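Loading example: each entry is read as two labelled lines plus one structure line.
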Amino acid sequence: MYAFEIDRPTTLDAAVTALGQEEAQALGGGQTLIPALKQRLASPARLVSLTGIDELKGICVADDGALCIGAATSHATVAAEAAATYPALADLAAHIGDPAVRNRGTIGGSLANNDPSACYPAAVLASGATIRTNTREIAADDYFEGMFATALEEGEIITEIRFPVPEQAAYVKFAQPASRFALVGVFIARFGDGVRVAVTGASEDGVFRWTEAEAALSDDFRPEAVAGLSVDPEGMIGDLHGSPEYRAHLIRVLTGRAVAAA
Amino acid sequence: MTKVSMKVNGKPVSGEIEGRTLLVSFLRDTLGLTGTHVGCDTSQCGACVVHVDGKAVKSCTMFAAEAEGCEVTTIEGMANADGSLSTIQQAFQDHHGLQCGFCTPGMVMSAAALLAETPKPTEAEVRHYLEGNICRCTGYHNIVKAILAASGQDVGDIGGDAIAAE
């Protein structure tokens, strides 16, 4: 790793100030950033750790029924504490990485990083969640801007994610067995006014909504409703783990499984 | 260089660190607690697992500065007060849960975290919990057996037909 300073603020205001310094970068749980720093893929002059800020942690249910999760809440805490309100989301969190990673990794860090194979972006997009930051609220549909790209501005900090809780939901991940990232993952959320389907791990543009499946499932919420659909392999990720065609095929298969599981 | 203070195995410790000093480096190089191992240094193998405020974490993927004020437990803190092996450590010995022993500190720390959360895990729960701990010697069966034995469960069937049928 290149050398850097590290700050550990205990309030959001102090973190915002610290991030205003030159070449400062936010550090969530570090389960992605620290390995990246070790490979010298990032070279910040200063890291601002967000995990010492209590106001960014915790889970609650708002008056409108939405599940609100503080950005610095660990995957393990989401897995344990969201289970009663939003079981599909808790199940997703319970299968990220391994137990030690889940004890450190945070939902805000995952969303700020927006890895194209991360699990949380699928839940956020399918749920139509709202990303709250220190300056504004961003709708999920406006937040994800492609692989490792988001609507966050320089120095902006995610503070909370508000999830409307669907009537039915499920996340099915075809895990890459070594990393346990999603080779493809499909999150389905059924609300009173329709179904949302978000796909992670597959596209070179990162997480996306499969609108064709959403329309079919909004009419007929059964696995059979998507059996005749297909995804164009153009623009899908191809690597040693799977070709674009394979990933495109998995999207349909996993969507069917998610509907069955919801 | 900044100063960091924490409790390690119940004792207050402090030291001068750089921002980039990993928790595992602080434990091994500054404190001389070399029981915590660095296997892969890429967050995958789990040889470096320690407990921070009671939670299992990979100490190669956390900065020492992030442990400021925390209670850290390493493999050196696992033995009983009289120096005898803890129940989990003894079970690893009894059931041949180690060969070269390199992964063992992390295995024992993960096992302890699992049993703290789930005192009587099933075999499947043990295997799922160990996803982040890699062992290249044992093939895992005897590690699973040791952990189940440490939880006070009968392990007569483990490692035989039950495994073959999986």
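The beta strands of chain B are 2-8, 11-17, 49-52, 55-58, 71-73.
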